[in-house]
Amino acid sequence: MKRGIFLFGATFVLGFSVVAASAQTLKAVKDRGSLICGVSQGLPGFSNPDDKGNWTGFDVDFCRAIAAAVLNDGSKVKFTPLSAKDRFEPLKTGDIDLLSRNTTWTLSRDVTYGNFAGVTYYDGQGFIVRKALKVNSALELNGASICTQTGTTTELNLADYFKANKMEYNPVVFEKLEEVNAAYDAGRCDVYTTDQSGLYGIRLTLSAPADHVVLPEIISKEPLGPAVRQGDDQWYHIVKWTYFALLQAEELGITQANVEEMKTSDNPEIKRVLGQEAETKIGTDLGVSNDWVVNIVKAVGNYGEMFERNVGTGSPLKIARGINALWTKGGLQYAPPIR
To answer: Which of 151, 191, 219, 220 could staple 161 via S-S, CB 3.0–4.6 A?
Structure first.
């Protein structure tokens, strides 16, 4: 009986220690002086390094927005490239502070690996094929060989789609993204499937991009967003409300170019969001400075600017906003009030 009590006590202490340790992310980031952000191993438009190791992309900019909110400097980020298969373990162990890696929010991932802070990009799984195959629809892919990446929801969605439509296919599966890209480009499979946004980026890396077409079908819901460790509510709130701040800035017309000018606005909502109301201490309550939104927008712009620069019609990917437009323009992007 005494042994049982001892074990219970030890388990309680250990559990308490884990929770206490995981609740120190903000302090750890401030003490370190940089944010450690988990990103992809290279996906144009989302997180991709150039030949000098400089990272760009939509997910990369979100990391920089967090650094700006917490450290007042969007450049203070260390990027950790992670494969789809291995992306969650570094989050659980504390090797990264944030996972911002075109990751689909699902129930099992939310329960098992970490807390998702929002849907920064509404996506869906699609297919890319060679124009020479003269395929116009995914429903014409019966018997095709299909390249995909293991450790993703893509594998499961692919199996469900073909089973539901009574079609057969031959999966050609690889662990690393660059392996899938190379296999498809070399003709080892007829089709490549992943998130449709990713297909537009991948097409740019192929030896003859113009010879390939993205099919119109979307076969799944892929709400992509950043994830944080469980048990640290303060850090979760900072990441979640940074995302909402990016949306709110766009809705209010606050941009990277005019944010300083907007600080003198007479609009009470703009003043509150930008921390210009003396009686409002929203930033302090969150654990950051009251001008945290100013720092975010200075670093990366608002949500619309991030989207357009990295994946939008002004980028090489040329993806339309679609359902990622603000709710005021018929989209799904909607932020609760910052007040």
So the answer is: 219
